[in-house]
Amino acid sequence: MAVTIKTEHEIELMRESGHKLEEVHNALRDFIRPGISTKEIDEYGEQLIRERGGIPNFLNYNGYPASICVSVNDEVVHGIPTRKHILKEGDIVSLDAGLIWKGYHSDAARTWGVGKISPEAQKLIDVTRQSFFEGIKFAKAGHHLHEISRRIGAYAESFGYGVVEELVGHGIGTHLHEEPQVPNFAQKGRGILLEPGMTIAIEPMIDIGTKDVKWMDDNWTVKTADGSLSAHYENTVLITDGEPELFTCTKEEK
Ligand code: MF3
Ligand code: CO
User: Ligand 1: distance of its center to the CA of 73 in Å?
Assistant: First the structure.
């Protein structure tokens, strides 16, 4: 499947999808506190998605058993929510969520602190978020895709952090995962030329320590190989002739 250019009508539906997802994330942010289980986050997230007329797109995707990926501390992505896993003060928790609205997908991730967190953890969260914004300075028509990748990676690496290479961002639209792949580190080639109407999910995953990751026996949960903390930040982005439009981030998150 080639990279698709969305029509004005499709863009409007993706915008609506993204705005709903932004509301879901903001409500989840306010819900996070010590003592709740990761399963409660998933249940509340699914409720928030369905209340808005959306369908959770992660649920049953390749067999993934939840609506929200909840990844704590050294879990990078795709953590599976459980009743036994209780958040505690000082944890950091990455929430990856998505929904389908009128056939159009949105996808976004945030990492939040649980109660008071260490300065080191807060810095990781802030740099991960900023790496996304460094990258999207080049998310406009006329630039090549891998300029985004290179800028994200270079920014995060300038802090000595590990930039995860084994998982990447992606095109998005009528499917959760479309072409092109969007890596978060420098590539050999320049990548596709960006055009107005392309919609991509850009999602840096950054570790305090090594960039290497390992898969757990549940076949989903990805952890850092060295046990260091990891953060994730993602938005669904529209390429235009000018500034990119962030469907899932129209307001300041914090
Ligand atoms: N945001 C993730 C991605 O882009 C979440 C999908 S994984 C799922 O790949 F299986 F849980 F859906
Ligand atoms: Co994604």
Answer: 18
Residue ranges around ligand 1 (CB below 6 Å):
58, 61-62, 64, 69, 78, 96, 107, 170, 201
Nearest Cα to Cα of residue 11 among 251, 244, 254, 206: 244
Overall domain count for the chain: 1
Q: What is the mean pLDDT of the chain?
A: 98
Work out the number of other CB atoms within 10 angstroms of the CB of residue 142: 11
Tell me, yes or no, whether 58 lies in a domain. Answer: yes
Residue 44 lies in a domain: yes
108 CA distance to ligand 2 middle (Å): 7
Range of the domain at 99: 8-246
| pLDDT (tens digit per residue) in 132-165 | 999 999 999 999 999 999 999 999 999 999 999 9
Look at the alpha carbons of 145, 215, 229, 66 in this order and tell me if their dihedral is positive or negative.
positive
Q: Write the burial class of residue 129 (CB in 10 Å: 0-12 exposed, 13-18 middle, 19+ buried).
A: buried
The model carries a pTM of 0.98
User: In this predicted model, what pLDDT tens digit does every residue of 201-254 receive, in sequence order?
Assistant: 999 999 999 999 999 999 999 999 999 999 999 999 999 999 999 999 998 776
**Does residue 129 lie in a domain region?**
yes
- Ligand 1 atom nearest 107 alpha carbon: 1
Question: Is 144 domain-assigned?
Answer: yes
Amino acid letter for position 117: I
Quote the ligand 2 centre to 202 CA distance (angstroms): 7
Nearest CA to ligand 1 atom 2: 96
CATH number, domain containing residue 70: 3.90.230.10
Closest ligand 1 atom to 98 CA: 1
